[in-house]
Predict the structure.
Amino acid sequence: TELLIRVSEFAIAALQSLIYYSIYELFITLHTGYQIMFWKFELQTTSNIDTILNKEEVLLSELMGEDDVLQETKAQNPKLVEFLSSESTIEELIRLTLTEPPVTEDEAVRYKFANMASELLTSEVHQITESLAKQCNLERIWSYLDGEPPLNPLQASFFSKLVAHLLQRATSIVVEFIKTLDGCLDLVFKHIGTSAIMDVLLRIVTCTQVDDMELRTDFLAWLMEQRLIERLLDLLGPQVDESINTNASQGLQDLIRLSRDHFNQLMDGDDPSDPLLDQLQSAAFLSQFLFKRIPSSIDSASIIVSSIGVLLVLLESKKPCPLEVQDSFIQNDSKGILRMFNAFNPIEPEIHEVSPQIDQLSTAGIEAVCTALVPNVADFFKVLCNPPPIDAMTTTLGCLNPPLGMVRLQVAKLIAAVIETDTGGILELREAIIQSGILPKLMDLFFEYEWNNFLHHQVELIVKHVLSNEILSTHNDQHVGTTNGQVGSSDAQQPISREGQLSNIAHPLPEVQQSQTQPSQPQTQPSQPLTQQSQPQAQQSQ
């Protein structure tokens, strides 16, 4: 019996091996046969591009109808690249890109050739770019701006794509063309209400952030002569459309950020001067061109919002991640993300710190805003008390009449950003904010708009910094505490949306009171949350 069992096991193992070998042989046979059949019957896909190019008369429309024409162009098919880089073909591609297609065409395919033409012109092929950067073709491209506003947004994006490609691949040629073209910036500002044209202006301003420092210096000087910054700020005036206000403000914000980031790329010995950024960060310039618009634009929400947006960017400061935060992240790496990263990347990741140049630039911008803001604090208080009129808003929680509005929210963001700064000249500004009555007004708005978490967050930041600041906290009782005992009151029915902010605001109040009444005695025990204190303690902390 034992012998029969062993023979049976051996027979089964041999049969399994035979089956596995047979399957393997079958797979090899089928795979080899398929390869032979594939090449024998020429089943590989072939492109029709070469067939079209071999004709005596090649039509561009016929080529662009092929699905793989862009793929063949990027693969640099010799015949195709030679045809596309010819002068007549480049001219036709520009015409297709920037000319409005007939309305009679089907909407689904109306812009098909225009989109394909722009893709071919920006396909990163040297011969095509070299032909596109010729003087005659640059004039054809720029003639698109001769039309009357508003431009077609889709076609304007094609134009922006062409200009961005040329500024990246033929920077010196395009810069010289822009400088020699009469009224070049006038044409751009004519259509500044179109977002794609605002992108073109931003590309023009930042295109010289390259290694050629001489080209950069000359072009920045030319932009200063054209009064670029003044003309952008003029677009924040009351007689300008809201879309233009928004685009001009966004352009200034992007210009400030990109100019500051450019300093991280400078090498030792490079000239770090940027006259455009220096002009924007001048306190005298801000007072003259920006703050004059706030009192005269009390009824224009877009102007106030756009102006404050520029100030908020000037108040931004890049700071490296604190070491304690990095250590905390490493210690709490519960999911092993860092360990997994180090397993595949034996080289430790570098910790990039903020360069001294960009830190100095940020400080200069903050100091300029604080200096220019001191005599204008009262204007922002007027905006909080009498914002631009807004229609009543019906929500699921009732009717807001009037709503908080973007204007007052932007003012709250500005005050929060200013109070959190710690640079020279900030003491005078903080004193002006205290005397103006802005802080009590913001606290009143906090309780008036009980479901506006955006406002609650800004007020929470302000109060936290007020309580942690010695100068501001000395004015806490008479200036901030005007909410009639609402913070920490056990009788008030607080909405759920602001309970988190109220808890965060009320929690450090006992510590602040104890530090002010007994400054010499160190605190040995952490204070309990306000919700766990007795009623007398809660009333005292208010």
